[in-house]
Amino acid sequence: MDVIRAVNLDVGxxxxxxxxxxxxTIPPGKITVVVGESGSGKSTLLxxxxxxxxxxxxxxxxxxxxxxxxxxxxLGALYRRIGVLYQNSxxxxxxxxxxxxxxxxxxxxxxxPRPAEEARVHEVLWMVxxxxxxxxxxxxxxxxxxxxxxxxxxxxxxxxxxFCDEPSAGLDPLTAAGLDELLRSLQASHGMTFVAVTHELRxxxxxxxxxxxxxxxxxxxxxxxxxxEASGDEYLRSFFLIKDEKP
Amino acid sequence: MKLKxxxxxxxxxxxxxxxxxxxxxxxxxGVLPGAxxxxxxxxxxxxxxxxxxxxxxxxxxxxxxxxxxxxxFGADIYLADLIxxxxxxxxVPLMTGIMLAGKIGASITxxxxxxxxxxEIDALKTMGVVPEKFLMAPRLVAITLVVPLLVAMADTVGxxxxxxxxxxxxxxxxxxxxxxxxxxxxxxxxxxxxLKTMVFGWAVVVGAGYKGFFIDRGAxxxxxxxxxxxxxxxxxxxxxxxxxxFVLY
Lengths: 247, 249
What we know:
Number of helices of chain A: 8
Number of domains of chain B: 1
Strand content of chain B: under 5%
Oligomer: heterodimer
Order of helices and strands of chain A: EEEHEEHEHHHEHEHEEH
Largest sheet of chain B: none
CATH class of chain A: Alpha Beta
Shape of chain A: globular
Strand order of the largest sheet of chain A: 6-7-8-3-9-10
């Protein structure tokens, strides 16, 4: 069953729709990349999916369960099922890495014994290659390390899906490639589901299983990444810089 | 229209903060362990020296300017009455409130506004944390606990300034001065001073939170919000002081 299903979804700001009548699904165990030009509504869509803004119309389903954006209970349930990696990492600067990553456990599973909490935090730190850095503060880390730490925090509660907002933005090409490789290896080894919003073509090429291309006020392409090259859609081909073979 | 919207957001945040602080006090949940103690340290221990210095200097200044006038009429001893009542009822609450606005309010706004710009507030929300509770409840609890201590200290230091001036300028012995102070100042005056300062402290924290949470621009907005937070807090303090004056006197 699909993790997320959007039905006739309108999203926007201040009552003005940016994207209209979106219908799409996010399948489990795959990396879906939401792409589009600047201002195409990628971040607006992401905010609606993670419950930070209310859709203007339509519905979002998690499995069979409809998200009620007016219900604290429904949103609370949503937040327990997702992890989010923000473009700025969004680690709390006043807390150590350990405290940042342990925060979701302390909030959602406050009865967790300390040894179990420590074991889980160290496990995710190890998964993202940051073992031994748990007592550092975010400002002591490089941009790439902060992103990895934020990914560890997003994964600590074993969410059904991890959303990544511009995961490789602001990183040098090597560090960006390393982070993409990490996402890909986590998806492969743990069967994790990711939704990444990005417009970096190299990053898309490294991580995407599926592509959701936004254009105008709707979806221009929604399908497997491997099908992009075979597509005859001119806009799609020009967006992905696919050169037509000369006869 | 903008004022109406601002007032709506301010009172909405105020209601949220009251609700979430109450819920935190009942369930002790949704806030990091040790957050209140950390805020007690920042708001109390770190504010102690500046509040002491300012109230001491105000005590000395008011005493010096009043002593000369009172001496003309041979009413030297009434300096104790003036300083005792003025410090405890008015000057200590006002000066402590203004010091808290500059020191605590500005730092709360800068911290929350920066967190907002850096997506940390959104990150808290998507972790299922209520930012208004996580960030504000410990501060509201801490300011409530710290104000009585700050006021008691500031009252003592401010009156101490008066004692020194009375001794040096008028030759009034400290024992006589303090006996006169205690003959006019009641426990009710002291408690009123604490209540007023507590309300000012809450105004500072809520006003600072409001400016931090509702920053409407990027990084350049942080500085603007911080300045506005201090102005808002001082305006609230003066306004509330005026209301207290009408109600109490």
